[in-house]
Design a protein that fits this description.
By secondary structure, the chain is α+β, with helices and mostly antiparallel strands. It is built from seven helices and five strands; from the N terminus they run βααβααβββααα. Its cofactor is Fe(2+).
Length: 192
């Protein structure tokens, strides 16, 4: 989070920000960080374990049906980013599916790391500028490849339809570089 600004005329909104942080299920240390240090919170994140993705997807489809919404086959309630799980929905998700995430308040200067495939949502406060970087770590190549395959089944007009991670290219270039290094050091590797 590289910038958090407060619009003119809204300088005295600490009560509202505190309520947002508390309603977001933030822990006591985060609340204390806001109330005592006067740092500027920019976003409230809820991050869930990747292993709970299908449960969350099922829950969102169920809620959509209850509200009379359609669930087209080529759309995905997580990738569509059309839901925000407020406190009542988060509580219901926990009660009905046993899924509980982590609430993280991102203050000015903080970094939030989201593991591959972890469903997440963010609610920004005021005016924020964040810098995001997607990357593929060796430990998560398998999961990233699975996500790429999942994106293929979305509609052609979906914003996540394209392979943004380029996992196959990452794997190809990693193997190519490894082979190049091994060949360059082949003589020193063959010595007893």
């Amino acid at each position: 989070m590289v910038y958090v600004g407060i619009p003119k005329g809204q300088a005295d909104q600490e009560e509202e920000v505190l309520k947002t942080i508390q309603d977001g299920d933030s822990d006591e240390l985060t609340i204390k960080r806001f109330t005592e240090s006067r740092e500027k919170p920019g976003a409230l994140w809820h991050i869930y374990a990747a292993k709970d993705t299908e449960k969350i997807r099922e829950f969102l489809k169920k809620v959509a049906e209850e509200q009379g919404q359609e669930n087209p086959v080529d759309h995905d309630p997580i990738h569509d980013q059309s839901w925000y799980l407020d406190r009542p929905l988060r509580k219901r998700l926990h009660q009905e599916y046993g899924v509980q995430g982590w609430a993280i308040v991102q203050f000015l200067g903080d970094v939030v790391f989201i593991p591959a495939g972890a469903p997440h949502q963010a609610r920004t406060r005021d005016i924020c500028i964040k810098v995001a970087e997607d990357f593929v770590s060796p430990e998560h190549v398998k999961h990233c490849f699975w996500l790429t395959q999942e994106f293929r089944y979305l509609s052609h007009t979906h914003t996540n339809h394209e392979d943004k991670l380029q996992v196959k290219n990452v794997i190809y270039h990693a193997v190519k570089d490894a082979v190049g290094i091994l060949r360059a050091n082949e003589s020193s590797l063959s010595r007893p």
